[in-house]
Specification:
It is built from eleven helices and no strands. The protein is mainly α. Among the domains are: 70 residues, Serine Threonine Protein Phosphatase 5, Tetratricopeptide repeat, CATH 1.25.40.10; 67 residues, Serine Threonine Protein Phosphatase 5, Tetratricopeptide repeat (Alpha Horseshoe). Helix 2 crosses helix 4, helix 7 packs antiparallel against helix 8 and helix 8 runs antiparallel to helix 9. It is elongated.
């Protein structure tokens, strides 16, 4: 009879001491965990930088791959979501681009002027593709204020104003688009719209 009682006392002692020791041990990262935590953000930043350059070079599938790697390391980074939205939009993946633009929304307040210009350009373009003309025009006006020399800001806002039955504003922006990008694939469509109202 003494053994079970002694055994019960020993178990009680272990139960009281073990959780404290285990909690202290579990709260300290192992040496293998520490370097990974330090490397992941840097890797994400490097991938994001590559994605920005690939988007600028119009290599959208490669940019998508890089930015998805960046998002694995930095899932809350709004600029990474913007870069993914750009890559998706330019590949014709409009709805997924819209979802990424929602994740990039903090850039309205915290982004650099270049990030904000890209955000408004792509959200405005996305809204135009969804036939939300008034909302598209608002975003594209902001994009033009930040980056007046980006031709596609003028193209999409011109299309929006055409659908909003504002021919004077349409003409102004489509003429600017043609001035900035005379050989763009959309140039013929712009010229046809302009001939129809002039």
């Amino acid at each position: 009879m003494r053994r079970p009682r002694l055994f019960a006392v020993a178990l009680l002692a272990i139960a009281l001491v073990a959780p404290t020791a285990f909690a202290q041990e579990a709260s300290q990262p192992t040496p293998q965990e520490q370097p990974q935590a330090a490397v992941a953000p840097a890797a994400g930043t490097e991938n994001l930088s590559k994605a920005v350059e690939l988007n600028k070079a119009k290599k959208y599938p490669e940019a998508e791959t890089e930015v998805r790697t960046a998002l694995a390391a930095q899932p809350a980074n709004p600029n990474a979501h913007l870069q993914l939205a750009i890559a998706l939009f330019e590949q014709g993946k409009i709805d997924p681009a819209g979802q990424e633009l929602e994740q990039a929304k903090p850039l309205e307040q915290t982004g650099t002027p270049a990030e904000q210009a890209d955000f408004y350009q792509y959200r405005g373009s996305y809204l135009a593709r969804k036939s939300k003309w008034a909302e598209a025009a608002q975003d594209l006006e902001k994009a033009i204020q930040l980056d007046p020399k980006e031709p596609y800001n003028h193209y999409y806002i011109g299309v929006a104003y055409n659908n909003l039955k504002k021919p004077d504003k349409m003409v102004e922006h489509l003429q600017m688009f043609l001035k900035l990008a005379p050989t763009a694939p959309e140039a013929a469509k712009c010229k046809a719209l302009l001939r129809a109202v002039m």
